[in-house]
Sequence to fold (258 residues):
Amino acid sequence: MQVYLYFTQSRRDGIWLRSLIAMLYLAESFNCIISIYYIYNALVTHFGDEANLLAGNWAFTADAALTGAISGAVQHFFAWRVYVLTKNGIVVAAIILCSLANMAGSLGATISMANTPSLSQLSNLEIEVTTWLVGAVLADMIIAVSLLWHLGRHKHLYPALTSTINRILRMTVQTGFVTTIVALIDLACYLTIKSAIHLIFSMTLSKLYTNCMLSTLNARGATLKYDGSPEGEVSHSRSNHPRVGTFNHSSRCLTSRK
Fold:
């Protein structure tokens, strides 16, 4: 539904963004398919077979790589959005480095699991999993905090658009910290609980990233200007003000994370 809404409401987006959404949709669909296959194979096809339950397979191994790739793509997209608004290269570089650590950790976990496909191997992947999840958490936190700081700091420059900025700030908190909290819970469960219960949260991470990105992109269509006109129709009394024009352009880019 989110993908359908995006492609019907966001025809003015560049081809690269629409292509990114299509690729994320295909990757997420494949991730769902292999997750369903793994669960069906373990709990239905081999019901009661404890040895098979403890043994991993290609579907279980691929999940980590796909999750890292999807989350990394989303974080790089938001890093670009942060740069569009803040022009702060240091913050963007920090986001990209943390995102690359996230992707490297997930790839390392995938390679290790491919060499020894067994759930018992999970406890030996502390370095890979910690790098993966800590990188994801730090990237998400930097993105959310940088946007909150910048918009809050410059809100007084756009008194006519206060309600729009407040809405963006709320969306930043609501979506930006969702993936952070789930990744932290996933990491905490992995480090403290020796069973594979952390997989409950790990298998949902990529879906959260994709849905947060799509929901915030789709929310652009519901954003109203201070005079009640739909987004893109700024009243002529203030539209010529350079600061308002700059914010309008940035907010359309930004509503994605928020």
